[in-house]
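Lab meeting prep.
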Amino acid sequence: MSTPTIRTEAEVQRAHDILVGLILDECPPELRPTEEQRAQLASMASVLCWMLHHDHNTSFAELLAGIEKAANDLGTIISGPGEN
């Protein structure tokens, strides 16, 4: 099994820009998302903002910090794959 690679900053920025464009209706009417899709796109964009260190959108960072704090309060340390 090969080790997955991380997307380049340019790829992540492009994905972010596409999602934000859809959220803000900066696209043809045929591509405009429904409100349900817009909420999903906003969640996805929040993760990309976190990856890109955008200070204007801290939703994902706050959610992640809350999860880590709750786990720590329970005496649990959350680690990623390969971490112990």
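Slide two material, second protein:
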Amino acid sequence: MAPKDEDFLKPIEENLLRNLNAINLEDSKNNVMKKLGGEFDYPRLSEFISDIMSDAKDIWKEYERDTVEYNIHVPDLILD
């Protein structure tokens, strides 16, 4: 007499459940963070980008001021 499908799959199911229960998500997360160099600091990135944008705006204002002061004509750039 052939075993029922449930009987055949029972050891596989038990093995999968044992493996799933053995996973420690906190340790896994810590291992990934360690390999990546630590937690990603989004507030620091945002501050860094804000600083770059502020510098870019200052440079643009200086460029505009210089073009007016020295009467420099810069043609518009058109990209196709």
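Talking points for slide two:
The two ends are 76 Å apart (CA to CA).
The mean pLDDT is 88.
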